[in-house]
Specification:
Number of helices: 3
Order of helices and strands: EEEEHEEEHEEEEEEHEEEE
Number of strands: 17
Largest sheet: 11 strands, antiparallel
Shape: elongated
Structural class: mainly beta
Length: 332
C-alpha cells in the first residue's frame, strides 16, 4: 500500500553539473547518420574555379553555395577583423549639451560601424586572419609573422576558407576548449584552448574554432600552385581524415529530501495483515515496538501520477524516536 506526503519547495534542491564526453571519428564515420559532421569550402568567387558560368556548391550532408558559406562566416565571425588582425577599436564620442537638442555638440569620433561581437572566445587578445582578396602570389613569406599563410609562386589565389561543422547533438553546450584535433593528409590542426587553430609542428595560426557553435574555420595554410590553398582543400574534401573533440553538457541534478517524522507512518498499510473485512489489525502491529519497513519511494505530481520511482538497497525501518530522511537524486 501507499502512504503519501507532500514535499515543499525547501525539500527540492536543483544543482547544475557539467559533464564531458570525448569523441573520435574517422573517414566515412564523419558523415554517418549518427554523427553528421559536415565540411564546406567557402570561396569569395561567385563563379566556379573551372567554369565562370557555374556557381560552385559544397558540403557532404547539405548542399551550400561556396560564396554564401564564405560571406556568412565573414559576417558572423570576422566582420570586425577585416581591417585589423586584432579587431577594430571601439570609438566613442561625448555630447556637450546645449540649450536645446539642436545646440548639442559632439566631441570625438563617432562609433565605428564595424563593431561586432564576433563570438569572442576569451578576454585575451588574439589575431583573426580572414582572406579577402584574389591575387597572384610572388615569392615566399612562409614563416614567423605570416600567421601560417605560406605563399609560393603560382596561379592566382582565390580567397577561400574551410569550415568543419559539428552538430549540437554531439558537442552539447560547447566543444571543450583544448580538445579539438583534426588530421588530414596535409597535416594536423588543433585548438589552443583560446579559440585559435594551429598547425601541428609549426604552431602557426591557421584559423579559429568557435566552441559554442561547433564550427572550426580554416582561413590560411601552405599554398602550392593550385588556385586555392591545397591543404584547405585536403581538410575539406579528403576522405582520409580523423576528427577528435570533447563535448560539454550541463545537466541538472534534482535532489528530493523525503523526511519521515518520528510520529509518521508508524502503522502498516499491508492488507494481508487485516484479520477480517473490517480492516482491524493484530494487536502486535499497534504496539510501541512495532516498526514498519520502507522499501520503495515514488514521486508523484499533483494529480497522483507516478513520475519516478526508487528502490532502497534494503528495507528501511521507520524510527519511533527520531526523524528518518531519504534523499532521492535524479539527473536530467
Amino acid at each position: 500500500m501507499i502512504a503519501f506526503k507532500q514535499l515543499l519547495s525547501s525539500d527540492v534542491i536543483v544543482t547544475p553539473l557539467e559533464v564531458n564526453k570525448a569523441f573520435t571519428f574517422s573517414g566515412s564515420q564523419l558523415t554517418g547518420s549518427t554523427v553528421g559532421i559536415d565540411r564546406f569550402l567557402g570561396s569569395q568567387s561567385t563563379s566556379s574555379l573551372f567554369s565562370p558560368t557555374v556557381e560552385p556548391t559544397t558540403g557532404y550532408l547539405s548542399t551550400q553555395y561556396q560564396s554564401l558559406v564564405y560571406n556568412s562566416i565573414k559576417e558572423l565571425y570576422y566582420s570586425n577583423y577585416l581591417g585589423n588582425l586584432y579587431g577594430t577599436p571601439l570609438n566613442t564620442s561625448s555630447i556637450i549639451p546645449g540649450t536645446n537638442t539642436s545646440g548639442n555638440v559632439s566631441v570625438g569620433p563617432y562609433p565605428s560601424p564595424g563593431l561586432y561581437d564576433n563570438y569572442l572566445q576569451s578576454t585575451l587578445t588574439f589575431p583573426r586572419y580572414f582572406p579577402t582578396a584574389t591575387y597572384t602570389p610572388s615569392g615566399s613569406i612562409y614563416g614567423s609573422g605570416s600567421y601560417g599563410l605560406g605563399i609560393f609562386q603560382g596561379n592566382p589565389i582565390v580567397a577561400s576558407i574551410g569550415v568543419i561543422s559539428i552538430p549540437s547533438r554531439l558537442y552539447g553546450d560547447f566543444i571543450q576548449p583544448g580538445s579539438f584535433i583534426f588530421t588530414a593528409p596535409s597535416g594536423t590542426i588543433y585548438d589552443d584552448g583560446e579559440g585559435n587553430l594551429l598547425l601541428s609542428g609549426s604552431n602557426l595560426l591557421c584559423g579559429n574554432i568557435f566552441y559554442g557553435q561547433g564550427l572550426a574555420v580554416i582561413t590560411s595554410g601552405s599554398i602550392t600552385t593550385s588556385s586555392v590553398p591545397t591543404d584547405i582543400i585536403n581538410f575539406v574534401t579528403s576522405s582520409n581524415v580523423t576528427c577528435s573533440f570533447s563535448s560539454s553538457l550541463t545537466i541538472y541534478e534534482n535532489q528530493y529530501k523525503c523526511t519521515i517524522r518520528e510520529n509518521e507512518f508508524t502503522y502498516t498499510l499491508n492488507p494481508t495483515l487485516q484479520t477480517d473485512n473490517s480492516g482491524s489489525l493484530p494487536g502486535y502491529t499497534t504496539g510501541s515496538y512495532w516498526s514498519p519497513y520502507i522499501t520503495t519511494v515514488g514521486l508523484y505530481d499533483e494529480t497522483q501520477n507516478l513520475l519516478a520511482i526508487g528502490k532502497l538497497a534494503q528495507p528501511l525501518p521507520t524510527s519511533p524516536t527520531t526523524d528518518t530522511t531519504i534523499l532521492i537524486n535524479i539527473d536530467m
